[in-house]
Amino acid sequence: MIAGSTVTGREPYLAARVLNALLREDYGGLAGRVTRSKDGVAVVLTGGHRVRLVPGSLFQDFVAAPEERLRLEDVLDTLREIAAPADAPGVEAFARECHEALRALDLHDGHREDVLARLGRSVPASARNPAGPSDVAYAPTASETADDGASRSLPSTQARISAAREAVTAPSVSEDAVRYETLAAFVDHPVYPTARSRVGLTDEELVAYAPEFAPSFALRWAAVPRERVTGTPVPPVPGLGRGGPAGGLGTSDPAESRRWSEAAGAAEAFAAAGLPREFAQTHALFPVHPLTVPAVREIPWAVVGPVPYLTVRPTLSMRTVAIGPRAQLKLPLTTSTLGLRNRRSIKPGTLADGARAELLLRAMPSPGILLADEQTHAHAGHEYLGWLLRRLPPGEIVPVAALLAPLPGAGTVVEALADRLSGGDVEGLLGAYLRLLFGFGVRLFVEYGTALEAHQQNLALVLGEEAGPGTDGPGSGADSAPFRLLVKDNDGLLASPGHLRAAGLTVPDFTDERMLTDDPHALADVFVTITLHLAAAAPAFGALPAPRAARLVGDALAEALEPYGDDPMARLLRARTLDAARLVGKSMVTAGTLVDKARTGARDVNKFYGTSGPNYLRQPPAALRPVTQQRTP
After folding, report:
1. Domain of life of the organism in this record (predicted)?
2. Which residues make beta-bridge pairs with 382?
3. Which terminal residue of the chain, N or C, has fewer Cβ atoms less than 10 Å from its own Cβ?
4. CA triplet 547, 549, 550: central angle to 5 degrees?
């Protein structure tokens, strides 16, 4: 602990996450400051401050001890000291990220009760209890990170837990998906420490548009000359002309939907957005996120209409908004998340590549797997003028990112789902999920040389008979799962042209050449860092004691690999996962913000590797605490 320091609120939580990330990535040789003595393991910060380290993290060897009350500036001063001079701009940008993330955490704490109340799950003051942060937990509140020395135990009555879980027992079809997306936003990213930072947004903008605040707002619309448009000329949302493919997508306001669906045609659609009717002959309408309006106004050939229309709610990704129970719009934003270089604009070609990737996956049918329909999109050649309509399948949709989310009073989403689907057996429910996940992922890897960037945000459980039966295929576990697995947002896919041709499939003509590789180790890097780390290990270790989670994940992966025997791709994947001494990881902070791409050499900042951690499948981190054994606010 840093002597004489006084820190309050969310600062110790965030400072520890930042220090842990820098240690994991060994930025600036920080691991060289780790000392071992009879007093234990520690890292020396600027000024000689010793921070005690302990084992037990999921993705790295040592992390800051829970009792350390770190100051963010002490960690940032150390970062500045170890950084190369060429990285100075990136270091200061990351410092801004840290302060913005801290501000966002504090802001969310102040609105948490209101958000839960608006979700229909208010939290009485008597239900609040302190609990410490976990490496894979939701972002705890300030009171939860306070080291008051008191013993911590589970809530004393099953009644409170049951009452809390009642809240998600039977959500309405029109609200369940957005509700779960909001709850998922209560959970911090398993790896990136400042995920709450949205670069450049004010408190007012966060409250108005960020998913953790459960807002609703109306979109803006821009007229774009038709000759600049590729893709669908008019977004098929309710009311934008007659006869479009939207059909009964619906909106959150039936009267609003009727008003638009009764419009005489495109001219009325332009007029309803406050644009001249005659634009219908020469222009196309593009939906614009309110945060992007100032940037679009700077585009000389685009005209932003003055009248907002179409009430939407943000999903976990923030730039994707729900326009109805089965439809979402993905729109560009001017901000960055998960690093300065991860801008949330939409580059030309990205949407078409995602659609091509979806069609490729549809040629690889797997039992129990559903694909979102992402074939309807348009772009105007500018990073702030593009849109994608995502159509979702029937059923109750629960993002994997929401599984560890806290319920008001006590418990988590995964516990509530287990109560409904598996008699309260969380391990059984997660086992069914993992068999689906690995059955699909291993089949793609071995048979088709394909790895998906389907992390916890891009995967969802689809509950209900409406999801329909799966197709036939080996090793899926679909026959025993009480749900299907939905996959969306496939523009980060990586595929081997050689394997695709060998399987009789046409190699897609991707605009982004980085989506193709014949390097099997590059494919394995994606599988380990996305499918294994984020989609499998993070929820499993967050919900179960580490030994049980390790066994569950390892057994499901081994089961998926077993039918392929000595196939070279199966042997490689087994060597990189089950049999590996260490597991590859991403250097997300290094590539995302700290170091310029010219110095990292990263073709894709989201696929920059170089760090590694212990193989938790072989040696589970004993100190890791599952989220379901912590109290929730």
Report:
1. Bacteria
2. 385
3. N
4. 65
Q: Are 390 and 371 in contact (CB under 8 A)?
A: no
Which three-class secondary structure state does DSSP give residue 470?
A: coil
Least confident range from 211-215, 246-250, 383-387, 448-452: namely 246-250
User: pTM score, two decimals?
Assistant: 0.86
| pLDDT tens, residue by residue, 452-485 | 999 999 999 999 854 443 433 444 455 567 999 9
- E strand intervals along 308-419: 309-314, 320-324, 327-330, 369-371, 373-382, 385-391, 396-399
CA 132 – CA 142 distance, rounded (Å): 10
The one-letter amino acid code at 242 reads R
What is the full DSSP assignment across 408-461? SSS-BHHHHHHHHHSTT-HHHHHHHHHHHHHHHHHHHHHHH-EE----TTSEEE
Higher pLDDT, 169 or 69: 69
Whole-angstrom CA distances from 521 to 202, 363, 442, 444 are: 42, 24, 14, 15
Residue type, 419: D
Q: How many CB atoms lie within 10 A of CB 157?
A: 10
CB 526 within 8 A of CB 494: yes
Model confidence band, residue 633 (pLDDT cutoffs 50, 70, 90): very low
pLDDT at position 201 over 90: yes
Q: Return the domain boundaries, the chain.
A: 11-118, 203-345, 397-629
- Quick one: tokens of 603? 């073709």
Separation of alpha carbons 273 and 221, rounded Å: 6
Name the phi and psi angles at 134, rounded to 5.
-120, 155
C-alpha distances (whole Å) from 617 to each of 432, 528, 532, 621 are 18, 12, 10, 9
> 399 near 180, Cβ under 8 Å?
yes
Amino acid at 389: L
Looking at 1.10.510.40, 1.10.287.1080, 1.20.1290.10, 2.30.30.60, the CATH number of the domain 397-629 comes to: 1.10.510.40
> Predicted confidence band at 272 (pLDDT cuts at 50, 70, 90)?
confident
Is the distance from CB of 168 to CB of 397 less than 8 angstroms?
no
Tens-digit pLDDT profile for residues 389-406: 999 999 999 999 999 998
Average pLDDT over residues 272-291: 93
Q: What tokens does 165 get?
A: 């879980």
Asked whether the CA dihedral 261, 264, 266, 269 is positive or negative, the reply is negative
Q: In angstroms, rounded to a whole number, what is the distance separating the alpha carbons of residues 69 and 8?
A: 9
